[in-house]
Design brief:
The chain is of the alpha/beta class. The chain has one domain (1-420). 27% of the residues lie in helices and 27% in strands. The chain has helices at 60-74, 106-123, 216-228, 251-274, 276-279, 341-350, 372-377, 380-384, 391-407, and strands at residues 2-9, 29-30, 35-42, 47-53, 81-85, 128-138, 142-144, 146-148, 154-156, 174-182, 188-195, 211-212, 231-236, 242-244, 286-296, 317-327, 330-334, 338-339, 355-359, 368-369. The strands form 6 sheets. The protein has an 8-stranded mixed β-sheet, with helices on both faces. Strands 15-16-17-19 form a 4-stranded mixed β-sheet, covered by helices on one side. The chain has a two-stranded parallel sheet with strand order 2-12. Helix 3 (216-228) packs across helix 4 (251-274) and helix 6 (341-350) runs parallel beside helix 9 (391-407). The radius of gyration is 20 Å and the shape is globular. The two termini are 30 Å apart.
């Protein structure tokens, strides 16, 4: 396996309206640059490109355009270009909002395309031979922001901070990792990090909500680089209902979360290097697939498509995209919006791959993607959901079918019992 990596700054100017909680919030300062992290992989047969953007999300049309431009530049099929947005609330508007289409920042989007192309050009002739390791561990840095009471009615704790200690819904705390170690000396040169938590640690009231910032993923990249010398690409997991434990409290909280995650990354790196028989990918072959699934419009949606891209208006059935990229026995699954952790875990549980990582806001932005019972219990995420109650299950089934197709198997063979 050969890889090339690059980090391209994509910060807008201070004064740009920010895609946080208010459509017209204006930025007054910048804490750190937003970036797109680029990671190209070459297995000798196929080349793939992974892009990690410090952005809240993108319309499907923009994602398709990026995928097309990148595929043309690298002379690879578009299926092998996959991206994810961290979902920082402290970046520009790159989604179309039906209520306020005027805030979509077309000028910035055009510059974003140019920046992405510049980054891709910098990848060329930079490939290095590597060995690839995977790792997975739990890190207690996030919490499910929903609390479903005994009568199956949901609360939303960001609006009731004194009740946060009661949060007890399912929490995906898996820190999924890929390490790329230079073959000649086993020095780490790139780390892929997958973790499920809204980048909403630094988004504090006042100036904190009007600051350009990558939030905790930015600090994590910095800390990993300082401690290991490796670059880092951060890909958000199924973070629809996952919050940092110290949410919306400022830059210090973002640093603390990043420090906790970085410590876990360094532990994992040490363990993986010492046990190549367990964690080194023996055949990091690249495979890719794109597919779509259909869901019906939710007829009782209280928002009446208020926040939805006008592209979807007037339709009773939606065709939504999924994307898959496998690196040996590790699979990445790109989903079209803000997937709840429960559905992400269902995909992981049913996957035929050794490990499966979810890529948040990867193929489109179709708002929140919930499980059916969330509509019964209610809450903010359910209020936002735009397809009917079976849509979440249809998404899971389509994702699992795609993973089996990518794996090229019909069923998983049984393994012999192993001792520790």
């Amino acid at each position: 396996m050969k890889i090339a990596r690059y980090e391209q700054i994509i910060s807008p100017e201070v004064g740009t309206t920010i895609a946080g909680y208010g459509a017209f919030d204006e930025t007054f300062r910048k804490s750190d640059d937003l970036v797109v992290s680029l990671l190209a992989l070459d297995d000798g047969k196929n080349t793939a490109l992974i892009l990690g953007y410090d952005l809240i999300g993108m319309d499907e049309e923009l994602i398709d355009r990026i995928r097309h431009e990148a595929g043309q530049m690298l002379n690879i099929p578009e299926d092998f270009v996959i991206l994810s947005c961290t979902h920082t609330h402290e970046g520009p508007h790159t989604r179309t909002l039906a209520d306020h289409p005027e805030v979509f920042n077309q000028k910035y989007v055009e510059q974003l395309i140019r920046w992405t192309c510049e980054g891709i050009r910098c990848l060329k002739d930079q490939f290095v031979e590597v060995d690839t390791y995977f790792y997975s561990m739990k890190v207690d840095a996030n919490v499910n922001r929903r609390h479903v009471k005994r009568d199956n009615r949901a609360g939303f704790f960001p609006h009731c901070r004194d009740l946060e200690a009661l949060a007890d819904e399912f929490c995906d705390q898996e820190l999924g990792l890929l390490f790329f170690l230079r073959k000649e000396d086993r020095v780490p040169i790139e780390v892929l990090v997958n973790y499920a938590a809204h980048p909403l640690a630094a988004h504090a009231p006042g100036l904190g909500s009007q600051t350009i910032s990558p939030d905790y993923p930015g600090y994590l990249r910095k800390f990993i680089r300082e401690e290991s010398g490796a670059d880092c690409i951060f890909l958000s997991g199924a973070a629809g209902d996952m919050f940092p434990k110290e949410s919306e409290t400022g830059q210090a909280a973002a640093r603390r979360m990043a420090e906790q995650l970085c410590t876990a990354v360094m532990i994992a790196l040490s363990d993986a290097r010492r046990q190549p028989g367990r964690f080194k990918l023996k055949n990091p072959e690249l495979k890719a697939l794109r597919t779509r699934f259909e869901v019906k419009r939710r007829m009782d949606n209280p928002r009446q498509f208020g926040g939805l891209n006008p592209y979807y208006r007037g339709k009773d059935v939606f065709s939504l995209p999924l994307q898959f990229l496998s690196i040996g026995d590790i699979a990445l699954v790109g989903v079209p919006g803000e997937l709840l952790a429960e559905l992400g875990q269902e995909i992981k549980w049913h996957s035929p791959f050794r490990k499966t990582f979810i890529l948040y806001a990867s193929t489109a932005y179709f708002d929140y993607l919930c499980h059916g019972n969330a509509l019964v219990s209610g809450g903010y995420e359910a209020w936002c959901q735009l397809f009917d109650s079976r849509g979440g299950l249809q998404l899971v089934n389509a994702a699992v079918d795609g993973l089996y197709r990518l794996k090229g198997i019909e069923t998983i063979p049984s393994l012999p019992v192993q001792d520790f």
